[in-house]
Amino acid sequence: MKLGAVTLAYNDEGTIAGTIKCLAPFVDKHIVLISEKPYFGKEAPPDRTEEICLDLGCEVIKGTWALDHMQRTLGNQMCSDCDWVFTFDSDEMMEARQIERLIRFTEKCPAPAIGVTPEIYWHDIDHVLTPRPEYQPIIMMKPFVKVVYIRNINTPYVHSTVDMHHLSWAYPKDIYKKVTNYAHATDFNGHDWFHAHYANWDKTSKIAILPTGSYGVEYKPLPQELRDYL
Prior knowledge:
Elements: E1 3-9, H1 16-23, E2 29-35, H2 49-55, E3 59-63, H3 68-78, E4 84-86, E5 92-93, H4 96-106, E6 113-115, E7 119-123, E8 127-130, E9 138-141, E10 147-149, E11 152-153, E12 158-159, E13 165-170, H5 175-181, H6 190-198, E14 207-210, E15 213-219, H7 224-227
Parallel strand pairs: 1-2, 1-4, 2-3, 6-12, 7-13
Antiparallel strand pairs: 4-9, 5-13, 6-9, 8-15, 10-11, 14-15
Helix pairs in contact: 5-6
């Protein structure tokens, strides 16, 4: 079985190496589509994202896209010679044993796409949101699947119980940039939310406030295997 990977990026030097390294033993090719301009907000000077991707053996495509689903669909098309495509964001990782479980799952998967419920990290790589938000990102799909908006697709998908780790709200990700430049910017008054609910968050607090509601915060460190990739 031939496996590809597609990852989107925009100035993600703090996290993208982890995404690439965890997938590297399993994929035949990894395409990273780097935006030269953010979806929203002010453009920032490029960081080391492209250099890191090239050093780790990825194919890099640079361009400007209105939103991320256009990049995902393009990446899928570029993996048309693959049986399945991993679609990890640049802040998502999985342990090797979980990737192996996911690959085995594809062998009997009745649908052309697979979603998971991830561990979502808050503020650092030692704390997660609890209970897990009802969010099932599609992380693996057939190359013919079309992404129609953000991470929504035009085909059915099934849910897998494999664990995925998402540094969604955690350093070393640049959270301010996320809420002002990324697709999430449409859900936020990013500057105000960042300073009111994130920048000065107290680790003794058990509550994280997001536009989707309030969540508990639990101490649950990122597995050492993945910490070593960052």
